[in-house]
What we know:
Layout: H1 25-47, H2 71-81, H3 87-92, H4 94-107, H5 109-114, H6 120-135, H7 154-169, H8 173-178, H9 180-193, H10 199-211, H11 219-223, E1 229-234, H12 235-243, E2 252-258, E3 261-268, H13 271-281, H14 285-291, E4 300-305, H15 315-329
Antiparallel strand pairs: 1-4, 2-3, 2-4
Helix pairs in contact: 2-4, 2-6, 7-9, 7-10
InterPro entries: GIY-YIG_endonuc (IPR000305), GIY-YIG_endonuc_sf (IPR035901)
Organism: Novipirellula herctigrandis
Domain GIY-YIG: 249-335
Amino acid sequence: MTGKNRMGKNRKGTAKASRPWPLSKRSLSKNLLAILSFAKVAVVGVLVGASWTSIAVAESDVDSSANSFEAMDLIEAFKASSEGYSSDELIIRDDLREPFIARLAKRNAQAQQSEEAKNDHFERDALLALLQLRKSGKLSVRSTRRGQSVDESVYPIAEIAARVVTDRHRIGLDTMLADPVYRSELSQEAKKIDAEVDDYAVRKAVLGLRKRRALKPELVLRVADWGREIKTYSIEQLKGALDASEISTGPGVYLFRVSDGYLYVGEAKNLAERLTTHLTESDRESLAEFLSGDASGAVTVELHVFPRDSPASKVTVRRAYESELIRSRNPRFNVRP
């Protein structure tokens, strides 16, 4: 019979086998989750071929030309036009924004000389300069009035439309709301989802989503763009485009949507072929049932089309992108990654 002494040897003099410190099930689970989370991030980094130390910084919302405005001119024009509302409210309301731009143009000698005030860039730069002034704490005008509240039903529409515009042009929310061209595009995308939705309500909802931090770009898109092109269709438009062979037969990701959010996100090596399958007899039971129902006419489809020679030609890359979209868009009929 052998026993153990204080030196860690048994009585026969042989060293005892070392034993690892026992882990509880809870500790083991936490360690495994940490390892898996790290592995997921590492895989995404490898897939897009980017070093984590050299992730590209998103383009700044504030154009350098926005700095050409005098702070006093901005403040005076804002005081005269805002009617007690905030700078955000001025930007999204036509009846406040237009007088502000007109007053600022009169005070801005450079704009008068070049007639730049008639250009969309003048309005964009002026509004971005106003926001920059507010964020720096130098807009010394207190808001005394609040804007209208927005029904919660508008928020999903605003999220879908805003993501399309910001993803398509790789711009921030401030630029989208300040630039007349992008602001108009936001309204167009929102009306594709609900033709009756109010422009002001959509813009107001975008501001609300920004405060909730609900419109952050996907991790994959911060690393690489892959030359994607974003297009949107109603179901009928998509059917017509498929019949006319206008939908890409290359790789991509697609999102089925309705006015209260996303239905399904998927990826495909051949977009046209995969979408045809979904519209004829989808192999996704929940989606097939929805598309065959009375509400199918309200469905819109968003396509993220990639060049054939892009990294998205690899299924692992498309699935990484698809996984990020599922995580951020929370579609109704997908299984969470």
